[in-house]
Design a protein that fits this description.
Sortase, Chain: A; two-stranded antiparallel ribbon; eight-stranded mixed barrel; 30% helix; 260 residues; alpha+beta
């Protein structure tokens, strides 16, 4: 092989390496920007409920979300914000959005700017205010482990036992999400069925979800309860999804409010 051909090949290889390195750096930078945005948002619009208050509520047998959220302030920035989802000792601490187009927040943060991380958002076909009896909530499975990437961990019994609940705070009320099923499924499975009312079909749906679960959460469905389905991409097969089902248990309406 002649010297000039070697030089060309070396130059091409170097360009490919530089391009790949620049791409990786750009992706990591975008992840860092998104993480800082959501961390700043949580710092500005949420705060922990004082431990004394939580203890008092517990003594009174009144369920209270451990954080408070300024939903009015958030909605002043974007009226598509419908709530906040939080899970202790995890990265799940995000505003929840909903619009009439599922693509709107797929690659946008809550402030409307382009983002690889996107937002946590509710299925457009669901009614507003978590009025349905099965509401679907989506989030990306980020390589940075942000957004809903952690949903896969609930298929591990030890992790599930350490993180049995999440909290959903909305203008309509606050809920504890009692997790009851975690598994991998197809994006086109019956898992994504929306139920508008309680009944036998919903009961059968939840029973099937529990039978598919990789973990026994020990949570018994309650009559007329509402549910949420948390969903993110999995890369195990085409259109694979990690999903976690949760039952909504109402919190004391006095808790979970700031700036009211």
């Amino acid at each position: 092989m002649s010297t000039w051909i070697r030089r060309i090949l070396m130059a091409v290889s170097l360009l490919v390496f530089v391009f790949a390195a620049a791409t990786v750096a750009a992706v990591k930078y975008s992840y860092s920007v998104d993480r800082r945005l959501y961390a700043a948002t949580a710092e500005s619009f949420t705060e922990a409920v004082p431990r004394e208050e939580l203890q008092r509520r517990e003594e009174e047998k009144r369920l209270c979300a451990p954080i408070s959220v300024d939903l009015q302030g958030l909605r002043a920035q974007n009226p598509d914000i419908v709530g906040w989802i939080w899970c202790e000792d995890t990265v799940i601490n995000y505003p929840v959005l909903q619009s009439d187009d599922n693509d709107r927040y797929l690659r946008r943060t809550y402030d409307g700017k382009y983002s690889a991380s996107g937002s946590i958002f509710v299925e457009a076909l669901n009614h507003m205010g978590f009025a349905d009896y099965n509401t679907v909530v989506y989030g990306h499975n980020m390589r940075s482990n942000d957004m809903f990437a952690g949903l896969k961990y609930w298929q591990d019994p030890d992790y599930a036992a350490a993180h049995p609940v999440m909290y959903l705070l909305t203008e309509q009320g606050d809920w504890r999400i009692d997790l009851l099923s975690a598994y991998t499924t197809s994006a086109y499975s019956e898992t994504y069925t929306i139920y508008l009312a309680p009944g036998t079909e919903l009961d059968d749906y939840i029973a099937r979800a529990r039978s598919l679960s990789a973990v026994d959460f020990g949570v018994e469905p309650q009559p007329n309860a509402k549910y949420v389905l948390l969903s993110t991409c999995a890369y195990l097969f085409d259109d694979a999804r990690y999903v976690v089902h949760g039952m909504l248990t109402p919190c004391d309406s006095v808790c979970g409010r700031l700036a009211e």
